[in-house]
């Protein structure tokens, strides 16, 4: 059974990899992931705020002259609350690389295109096989346009590609008006991979204290369908390889991701819930399914239900929406 896949130009035995999370904090955990059969690992992110704080005692974009500076700064963790500082992160990448044979992908997480991004070179020099860029941002400014945000993201990717030799994946938000066009622009900027999608942690409101209360919960496969739709729309129509991140809870979910067009399936919540051995469950589920369908290789299944393969735009666009609304019966 041929389950090999290629992600960011890296050849992997199968498509199941660990996504950015605390699973990357410790060398021995990464080793356990490898022993359990994980095909690659994305380490937890190093944040822009950590890098700028250590370089210049300043937190990224924040302006000391703003009246609410102190309040905003206090909302960020203290430098010591992060698992690893920037130099330690680079050292960690090096130590993980020494300990395991599977590809190790570093992760940078920020929102500006400033000098902190040069730290990507340090991660590369530490031996990372690739870099995942997560430009997590919730734009609250009322004067910032979508085009400006897109242009900025594309520029950052272009700069990173100039800086690095290792491949770069971009972890995307689903909240673009024309995501296909953003994917195409990132393709043009040289992105080697697109990760669909970043998961936004929505602040809840505590009605007792009337304050915002942060919620960090593991995902469920209710989040999967949004990813499947966009994988299916993008598969075979842009160059970068495609990673699914979010809502893969069962082997069936993984198979759906492949059918939609994913090159790799990133797992976080499922591994945190069931432990590293769950990767083996995912892989066996996929192999049994391929065998059942008499498919000799993963390539036979990948993208079989994508827009490009089926040519059925109606399933992914407005026609399906109307059909779905009309299918409701009491
Ligand atoms: C506890 C926790 C920590 C995470 N840390 C990061 C991180 O450092 N960087 C990042 O890009 N994503 C991070 N994520 C998001 C995951 O990489 C992933 O995109 C998200 O959990 C959806 O995948 P899942 O449904 O398999 O959990 C984190 C998720 C969890 C649950």
Layout of helices and strands:
Blueprint: E1 5-7, E2 10-12, E3 16-18, H1 27-35, E4 41-47, H2 48-56, H3 69-75, H4 86-99, E5 104-109, H5 119-125, E6 130-134, H6 146-163, E7 168-172, H7 179-188, E8 193-196, E9 204-206, E10 211-213, H8 224-234, E11 241-245, H9 251-260, E12 264-267, H10 269-274, H11 278-292, H12 298-301, H13 307-310, H14 313-316, H15 318-326
Parallel strand pairs: 3-12, 4-5, 5-6, 6-7, 7-8, 8-11, 11-12
Antiparallel strand pairs: 1-2, 9-10
Helix pairs in contact: 1-4, 4-5, 8-9, 9-11
Bound molecules: flavin mononucleotide.
The site of flavin mononucleotide (FMN) has 22 residues, from strand 4, strand 5 and helix 10.
Protein described:
It contains 15 helices and twelve strands. With 330 residues, it is an alpha/beta fold. The protein binds flavin mononucleotide (FMN). Flavin mononucleotide binds at residues 19-22, 44-45, 107, 109, 134, 171, 199, 216, 218-219, 245-248, 267-270.
């Amino acid at each position: 059974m041929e389950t090999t896949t290629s992600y960011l130009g890296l050849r992997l035995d199968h498509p199941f990899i660990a996504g950015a999370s605390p699973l990357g904090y410790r060398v021995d955990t990464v080793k356990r992931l490898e022993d359990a059969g994980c095909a690659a690992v994305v380490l937890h992110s190093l944040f822009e705020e950590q890098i700028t704080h250590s370089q210049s005692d300043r937190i990224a974009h924040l302006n000391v002259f703003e009246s609410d500076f102190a309040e905003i700064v206090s909302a960020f963790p203290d430098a010591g609350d992060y698992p690893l500082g920037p130099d330690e992160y680079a050292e960690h990448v090096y130590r993980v690389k020494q300990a395991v044979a599977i590809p190790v992908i570093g992760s940078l997480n920020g929102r500006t295109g400033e000098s902190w991004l040069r730290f990507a070179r340090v991660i590369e020099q530490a031996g990372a096989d690739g870099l995942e860029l997560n430009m997590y941002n919730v734009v609250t400014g009322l004067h910032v346009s979508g085009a400006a945000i897109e242009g900025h993201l594309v520029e950052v990717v272009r700069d990173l590609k100039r800086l690095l030799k290792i491949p770069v994946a971009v972890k995307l938000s689903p909240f673009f008006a024309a995501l296909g066009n953003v994917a195409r622009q990132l393709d043009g900027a040289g992105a080697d991979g697109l990760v669909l999608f970043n998961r936004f942690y929505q602040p809840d409101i505590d009605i007792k204290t009337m304050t915002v209360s942060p919620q960090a919960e593991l995902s469920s496969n209710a989040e999967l369908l949004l990813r499947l739709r966009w994988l299916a729309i993008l598969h075979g129509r842009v160059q970068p390889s495609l990673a699914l991140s979010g809502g893969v809870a069962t082997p069936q979910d993984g198979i759906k991701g492949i059918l939609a067009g994913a090159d790799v399936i990133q797992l976080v919540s499922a591994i945190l819930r069931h432990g590293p051995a769950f990767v083996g469950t995912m892989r066996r589920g996929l192999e049994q399914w391929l065998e059942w369908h008499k498919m000799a290789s993963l390539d036979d299944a990948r993208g079989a239900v994508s827009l490009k393969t089926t040519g059925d735009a109606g399933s992914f666009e407005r026609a399906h929406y109307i059909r779905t609304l009309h299918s409701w019966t009491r």
